Amino acid sequence: MRTLMPDNGMAAEEVLAALSALKHKDCDWKNGRSPAYAFNPVDEIYELGRAAFLEYFSENALGMHRAFPSVKQLETEVIDMALGLFNAPPKAVGFTTTGGTESIIQAVQACRDLARATRKTSARRSNIVAAESVHPAFDKAGRLMDIDVRRLAVGADFRADPAALRAAIDDDTIMVVGSAPCFPYGVVDPIAEIAAIARERDVWMHVDACVGGYIAPFARMLGRPVPAFDFAIDGVCSLSADLHKFGLCPKPASTVFYRSAEQARFHPFEFSGWPNGRFYTTTIVGTRPAGGVAAAWAVFRHLGVTGYKRIAEDLLTHVDAYRAGIAAIPGLKVVGDPHLSIVAFGSHEIDIFRVAEVMAEKGWLPGLLQKPKAIHRMVSRLHVPVMDEYLSDLRAAVQRVRQSTPAASTLKAIY
Ligand SMILES: Cc1ncc(COP(=O)(O)O)c(C=O)c1O
């Protein structure tokens, strides 16, 4: 039945109480029950991000070029700090956006328009060449811009297969993509090899570091074996990295970067044939919260390199323990060899989706992979305090599935 707007409004306290009551149906993310979607425990970083966001609650990042120069300054400083992290050359350019999907769509559009402007374009559809593990945001971009996305099988190590990418590139290819890491398997693609192919074939290379961008640099500083993935590699033309994931900043916030101003040339949108005059934006959306930009600035300034390194060290040490805990349960095996904090595990002996069902009964919302069948988690600081509880429930769930009569699970992997 349709909900009608009430004739008379409710008191603010009642409305807030009703909101809070509604949440009881939701996944208990604060206690680590969600495999993804939320990242930050309610701690000092969370409170700072929230306070900075609220400080800029009414300001509109759309108006940063005229009404709110402070927002422009905050964006510039966030971008500068990030460019330093990603070894970007002095002429590199970047923008904040509302999320990974928007960063990716913008990069594809900047690439497509530059290809149109500088190459002989054919009447045929352009294409993007990528491993099947890249995020669906590329397909969303393809749908919006009539570009085909050629998704190719990953190698035995679940990383993009450079030879397969090379073979799929043709005269209509405008972009080749590598993930750092990809969401399904948590592995960083062989970015340097893919970039060499992109250079050789004169194709734009985008690195999707949406999920890894703000943890991988710190993991590398800590000496962890995370492959190089950024502008230090010649041939990387653009890179997306989400502030609202391991950047530990409130949603909505992401960043997208280009090696040069020439490559960023078609990123902004400009239109002057409007009664109101020139309209200029650097995002697909128009109005967007300045809070996301201010909060990112605050969290960057607060944590600094030392703070992010400390958090990365702590989280990744727990991820090591998590992987060891999984490996210690007979019948379970981690998928591939994840580089950072996304870990999936499956089984050759039992139906892992049955295990996910049992875990769901205990309140753990399952993240699932369909290829191969696995339980998937983007391990964040929210999972750390409940890791032992999770592993103990997992051990019991595996045992229960082993002991019960074999029955196929009806679960379907959905993100
Ligand atoms: C590798 C990767 N790229 C892009 C995205 C899209 O990000 P968003 O959900 O912020 O649009 C995600 C989200 O998880 C991701 O993991």
TrEMBL record:
An example molecular function term from Gene Ontology annotations: carbon-carbon lyase activity
TM stretches of this protein: none
GO BP term, example: carboxylic acid metabolic process
Cofactor: pyridoxal 5'-phosphate
Pfam families per record: Pyridoxal_deC (PF00282)
Modification N6-(pyridoxal phosphate)lysine occurs at: K245
Keywords: Lyase, Pyridoxal phosphate
Protein family: Belongs to the group II decarboxylase family. Sphingosine-1-phosphate lyase subfamily.
Protein name per the record: Glutamate or tyrosine decarboxylase
